[in-house]
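the two lines:
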Amino acid sequence: MIAEIISIGDELLIGQIVNTNASWMSQALGKAGVPVRHVVTVGDDGEDIRSALETAMRRSELVLLTGGLGPTHDDITKKVVADFFGSPRLVTDQKVLEHVRAIFARRNFPMSPINEAQALVPEKAQVLWNAAGTAPGLLFEQDGKLCMVMPGVPSEMRHIMSEQVIPLVQQRVTDSVIAHRTIRTAGIAESTLFERLSPIKDVEKFARIAFLPNYASLDLRLSVHAPSRSEAASLIAAAEKIVLDKASEYVFGFDEDTIESVIGRWLTERRETLAIAESCTGGWVSNRITNVAGSSNYFERGIITYSNDAKVEMLGVPEEILREHGAVSEATARAMAEGARRVAKTTYGLSTTGIAGPTGGTPDKPVGLVWVALAAPNKTVTKKFIYTQDRLVNKERFSQAALYLLYSHLKKNA
Amino acid sequence: MIAEIISIGDELLIGQIVNTNASWMSQALGKAGVPVRHVVTVGDDGEDIRSALETAMRRSELVLLTGGLGPTHDDITKKVVADFFGSPRLVTDQKVLEHVRAIFARRNFPMSPINEAQALVPEKAQVLWNAAGTAPGLLFEQDGKLCMVMPGVPSEMRHIMSEQVIPLVQQRVTDSVIAHRTIRTAGIAESTLFERLSPIKDVEKFARIAFLPNYASLDLRLSVHAPSRSEAASLIAAAEKIVLDKASEYVFGFDEDTIESVIGRWLTERRETLAIAESCTGGWVSNRITNVAGSSNYFERGIITYSNDAKVEMLGVPEEILREHGAVSEATARAMAEGARRVAKTTYGLSTTGIAGPTGGTPDKPVGLVWVALAAPNKTVTKKFIYTQDRLVNKERFSQAALYLLYSHLKKNA
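prediction for all of em together
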């Protein structure tokens, strides 16, 4: 079974929002053994939706549409799809109507005729129950192929996918399994790693391999299509072994692992603790650390010292260091990391101080400059980097530099 | 001129990465007056790329492809596109080759034959210079239509778009202008706002209007297609006036405005300052505040007190409050906000304390519970919310609740 996703909405075509729905749906379908071969985005335009649907129903066995099921005038998907499947007559679904009424009653919002209209369903469609919102999902079947329509609100789409679509799809998929494994590396260039793994056909005897560079890391994705789960697993294992034999020193994790989740695992195992002192990253390093469930076991506190006063008062950075070297300097980064470790009584103190931009740079200290420091029990290490002109890219890269400094230290001292 | 985007990469189809390139490109094209009508995603598969390119060259005047131009074996786009345009012979572009060599020399990385191959260009293609990386962009022209191919690495694609593609496109677009205006609202349901603006045709006499609900706000997007910039502007202005006349009390900003940028503007104007004390949000509130350029003018410090010790030591939260009410309580939220304001000597102190999950909930204090508090010069206000089971969604919603509390206070006391 091959799937196709049609994402509907002018807001996608003008770039106002990013299509996170399509990637979430692709992942969920992949886990269920159904590969997605096309993702097509069209606007709230009847003819474009119809044409995309026609192409999709011709070349794919499962077609999922999202978007344009809301209550307002710009939501036209239901009508277009109903017409396409020769079911223009809409009938009220009493169970959906009661559900919509109950939602409005609970929220204490006034209910209006356009909300009642959400319970209207094309005669030939089956309802895909949406407990998370007012617009029901719809299922059409034609020539043994399935077409399912869902709202574009991410939480509602995810709910219908998990509760309705995936179980329905799984009933029909019995023939094959798709499996992926991502090997995450850092500290090596794409072409160097490629050569290290050459000849690549040694790996590809077992699994397809793709190179996926990111800002500060490089992922290798292994993919297999096999008749059973166990065969898929052994193909992946064989390919993975070759990669690890040739390049294990650059591998920091697998699949969902992140630098921060690996750090978290190690700190938990070693019963060590962490305090963070941030300036230019403004909370982004601490936020990444606390995105990991269970981080309260090792993350004691974060101190975002945007002002010099805060650096002196909360971290004990000596005023003469700020005066002589400036807030963005190796000496300040060191004093911040050591100060965080001291006041929080943690195993490690990690700090960032730099110029995120877009303004505030000087010839000596340009926008993009950052100093990061790690205070460990027996020593403090510092590093300097110069990145870009873009504030948000800098916050990301600065935080990655700080976390990588901690990661490298933990790895070396394992 | 109508544009179409073809995004290439298995990593997109399996949902491993989100297609942020397509939204960025759509925005850039829209500003240049070129609407995107289709975005199509296909995998690293020669036949699927060729078929998508054929459809696109038939129905669109400008076709932009990204992805699959890297140095490794899974990058096949250059070959497929060259064949499609009848230009299979590749020739070395000396200028590109020197550029690739210079990049490797600067990075002090060893250079290999697969890197040299990046300078091979189809005979009929024109190079779109890529100063940001090693893979050149390519331009093909056929029957008056343009096809441009770029790497999928976001920073390289953006560079080629800004420096090469947009200027080329602008030379050809003289016939019309597209304009959008987003009106950002909060605190009102989609259907209620729809009715308030009814009859919607009063607005649509001037501009198309779309309703775009987000997690914690609701955007209205006005769109026009007009012969000139000035006509577009006056149509937008007329539509905007109708919306503001009917619903201005729910409008917090326009276009790129966010709650945090509006807060920043007001604090700067009033010369007021802010300190933040976070628990469950782990730095996310401070990070949002510091994403705004110029936030160092009003953001003094952020204190992430993940442990009880940190709450007592850094914010002066009384130990008996923690003992009697617990860390997640109205009393603790209040003491945190007041403590942040006191130690940082700022106009405002803003705090969050809650249970982000996935574990740590109790019957009395479930996962998703948050207390937020704002300490202002004459009073402290608190609010309680219960959101979801998802850690990252909770961090987002908790932070939005805290920022909205500050926003509302600043608005009321303008």
